[in-house]
Design brief:
CATH topology of the largest domain: Rossmann fold
Largest sheet: 6 strands, parallel
Shape: rod-shaped
Structural class: alpha/beta
């Protein structure tokens, strides 16, 4: 029997060890273990798991003579409890009376419901974080392959007509946002939206040399200047600078932006020129 069990338990043991190593290797990416108890659902889940195990061990010891072979010590009781609540059921320990059978069924139901639910609450965030990292890697790979796109680095309502016009021309458009609340402005438009992480991380996921135009469209001139400096530092040269279009929301910032980009949209100047025809 021991050889039979080892065939099934050995792979599980290996998987458990590998999973533990991966979690410990990337512990800095998780709120674990230093902030584990900061979330109340984590604490509650741990209490539930402990209660299920305690009930199982105590109940198994009390009914120890009603199993075959008999259970007379805590390690054996813990082993049988784990076997039942995880629904593995190796069959090496059998309940021989109606009472022990009902007890085993109840413990199995507790395991399916509360035990596995509690474990999911604890393990779920770890799997989710690792999944996010995998998705970011895939996005980075996809971003490097994109070609001939128009990139909006942040987005101002002033660029709404331009965005609509580009969509009508079937241009490939990427909008990079450092604030997810801005997604509602363009959620229904046919564009790719990147809003995970900082602006530098989003830009690093793209090969900007393959872009057709880069529009620095923040309502904050300071952000436009910082983004222009980042791009010029990572992609030095006149060819890249010529691709960049920026908006100068305040006339006083116009001269600061001009040396960093190919073209500057100055709303104040446009208003002044248009208003000449009105008076």
């Amino acid at each position: 029997m021991s050889g039979y069990l080892s065939v099934f338990t050995a792979p599980l043991f290996v998987v458990a060890i590998v999973s533990t190593i991966l979690i410990l290797k990337d512990y800095r990416y998780y709120n674990f273990p230093t902030k584990m108890f900061a979330r109340p659902e984590i604490s509650i889940s741990i209490v539930i798991i402990a209660m299920v195990l305690v009930i199982g061990v105590v109940g198994t010891l009390i009914l120890g003579n009603q199993f075959s072979p008999k259970i007379t010590n805590i390690p054996r009781a813990l082993y049988y409890t784990g076997e039942v609540v995880t629904t593995l059921g190796f069959g090496d320990i059998l309940p021989t009376t109606r009472t022990s059978q009902i007890f085993s069924i109840v413990m199995s139901m507790l395991g399916i419901g509360s035990f596995f639910g509690a474990v999911t609450v604890i393990v779920g965030p770890l799997i989710y974080e690792r999944g996010r990292r995998v998705v970011r890697v895939i996005q980075r790979m996809e971003g490097k392959l994109m070609n001939g796109y128009v990139l909006f680095v942040d987005f101002s309502p002033l660029f709404e007509p331009l965005l609509t016009n580009l969509i009508q021309q079937d241009e490939l458009i990427i909008v990079a946002l450092d604030d997810k609340s801005k997604e509602s402005r363009i959620s229904e438009k046919k564009v790719f939206v990147e809003s995970e992480g900082s602006m530098e991380r989003i830009l690093s996921n793209l090969d900007l040399t393959k872009s057709k135009k880069i529009v620095l469209g923040s309502e904050d001139d300071g952000k436009n200047i910082m983004n222009a400096l980042y791009i010029s530092t990572k992609y030095p040269g006149e060819e890249m600078r010529a691709k960049i279009i920026a908006i100068a929301n305040l006339p006083s910032n116009y001269e600061r932006i001009v040396p960093l980009v190919g073209n500057v949209i100055n709303p104040a100047k446009l208003i002044a020129e248009y208003s000449k025809s009105l008076f």
